[in-house]
């Protein structure tokens, strides 16, 4: 701090301003108020507390049969699932909870929430920020624990967004219905396309909010809209979800995040990358295991334009991943690259949780370019610009 006295007078206010802006933006990322439903409602917690008033649950509005459930609570001999902490909320037929969240108009946000189904097989959840909405199918159990975190993205059309979770179901038993917990929101940014790589967010480092203390990753359900994706740059073009994983709970090839492909060819991620027609390109990616006791063999089908290649992961005691490549000639100005798991893998310990191969560090480059030199040059330019900036500031 002693050095700051040598700064011109105007530097400090600007730095403070930048600091404030930074805190304002980061404060929006993370759990929403009472997103874990642990705050004591006005009437206190009670077993089988059905919320009557629209404001029974702090920070949320509700409509219909909304019930705060407690861990250990039983219903018809079945213990209800509470994903985290002591409490969660259950939505009866046609019931909903909602909360107003502050957003920045024009930005893309991703909502992360944990959901479980109770008695009905065909339970689903409609998550919306009107007019955008998506119905998330809770029929498939991806995990033997019976619940999973999911992510859904929306584009903010104003400065306030009404985040709504609704159970669209009409079950005979009105107390059946999805359980929700751990609601968080994160403003997404779309990483710039690297100079030497046509793939946006090929390292998967930008994605939905992940709770540090939840070890199940985050499921990314079907999303065909590349502009509004929880995984910027990518779409999930299959009926089933893929799993976004972190390095704190899984093994990832590079950085802190990667994608684990699930359910065979029912879990497909893809991206349209910019290419020049009739030019040779190479797609490279890392293929590995997540260290989640997934039953081998692991393999992916990788697509690049009109090429498709089946790549098997070869277990190697020295490394948790290997590098793979596909050579192709672009036919158009946009070329589709895609991945799915060749096998339908489950964990060896419970034989039912879905798992699969991990894909990371996806690159597409013009095979004729001197990519390494270029990357080095880019980094050098950046370093030089930084030095100039420091020199100007001092
Ligand atoms: C509650 O839901 C019902 C049925 O969907 C709807 O008609 C009513 O307007 C809602 N009430 C509020 C306060 O949103
Ligand atoms: C998990 O972390 C959140 C904050 O990120 C905290 O509110 C919650 O209590 C934690 N849950 C457990 C079970 O530790
Ligand atoms: C989900 O709910 C929203 C708002 O309540 C509604 O407009 C939309 O049609 C529903 N979406 C689906 C797929 O049911
Ligand atoms: C692991 O590394 C050691 C030493 O570099 C090498 O001798 C060995 O062949 C490697 N094993 C595998 C399976 O690649
Ligand atoms: C792609 O081309 C490179 C050299 O141009 C070669 O080393 C590599 O083996 C090729 N990959 C495949 C999968 O054929």
Automatic annotation (TrEMBL):
Could you tell me where this protein is found in the cell? Secreted, Cell wall
Q: Does the keyword Signal apply?
A: yes
DUF642 domain residues? 31-186, 199-364
One cellular component GO annotation, for this chain's record?
plasma membrane
Q: Which InterPro entries match?
A: DGR2-like_dom, Galactose-bd-like_sf, Pectin_Meth_Modulator
Tell me where it mainly resides.
secreted
**SUPFAM superfamilies, sorted:** Galactose-binding domain-like (SSF49785)
Q: Does the keyword Kinase apply?
A: no
In terms of superkingdom, the source organism counts as: Eukaryota
What is the residue range of the signal peptide feature? 1-27
Which controlled-vocabulary keywords does the entry list? Cell wall, Glycoprotein, Secreted, Signal
Q: Which PANTHER family match?
A: OS01G0756600 PROTEIN, OS02G0527500 PROTEIN-RELATED
Question: What is the protein name stated in its UniProt record?
Answer: DUF642 domain-containing protein
Q: Which organism is it from?
A: Prunus yedoensis var. nudiflora
């Amino acid at each position: 701090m002693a050095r700051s006295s040598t700064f011109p007078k105007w530097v400090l206010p600007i730095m403070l301003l930048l600091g404030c802006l930074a805190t304002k933006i980061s404060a929006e990322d993370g759990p929403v108020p009472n997103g874990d439903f642990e705050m004591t409602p006005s009437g206190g917690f009670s077993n089988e507390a059905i919320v009557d008033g629209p404001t029974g649950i702090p920070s949320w509005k509700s409509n219909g049969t909304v019930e705060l459930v407690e861990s250990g609570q039983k219903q018809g001999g079945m213990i209800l699932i509470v994903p985290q902490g002591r409490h969660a909320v259950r939505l009866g037929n046609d019931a909903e909870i909602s909360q107003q969240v502050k957003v920045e108009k024009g930005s893309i946000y991703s909502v992360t929430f944990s959901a479980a189904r109770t008695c009905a097989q065909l339970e689903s959840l409609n998550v919306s920020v009107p007019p955008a909405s998506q119905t998330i199918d809770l029929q498939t159990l991806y995990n033997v624990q019976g619940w999973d975190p999911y992510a859904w993205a929306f584009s903010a059309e104003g400065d306030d967004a009404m985040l709504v979770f609704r159970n669209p179901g009409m079950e005979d038993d009105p107390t059946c219905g999805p359980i929700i917990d751990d609601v968080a929101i994160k403003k997404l940014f779309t990483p710039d396309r690297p100079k030497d790589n046509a793939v946006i967010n090929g390292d998967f480092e930008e994605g939905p909010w992940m709770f540090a203390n939840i070890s199940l990753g985050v499921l990314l359900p079907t999303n065909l809209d590349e502009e509004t994706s929880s995984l910027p740059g990518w779409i999930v073009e299959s009926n089933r979800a893929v799993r976004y994983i972190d390095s704190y709970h899984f093994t990832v090839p590079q950085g802190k995040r990667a994608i684990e492909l699930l359910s065979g060819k029912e879990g497909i991620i893809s991206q349209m990358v910019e290419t020049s027609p009739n030019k040779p390109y190479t797609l490279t990616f890392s293929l590995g295991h997540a260290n989640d006791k997934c039953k081998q063999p692991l393999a992916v089908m990788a697509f690049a334009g009109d090429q498709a290649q089946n790549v098997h992961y070869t277990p190697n005691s020295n490394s948790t991943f290997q590098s793979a490549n596909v050579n192709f000639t672009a036919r158009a100005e946009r070329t589709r690259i895609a991945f799915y798991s060749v096998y339908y893998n489950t964990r060896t310990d419970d034989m039912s949780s879905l798992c699969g191969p991990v894909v990371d560090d996806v690159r597409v480059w013009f095979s004729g370019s001197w990519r390494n030199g270029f990357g080095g040059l880019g980094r050098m330019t950046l370093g030089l610009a930084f030095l100039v900036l420091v020199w100007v500031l001092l």
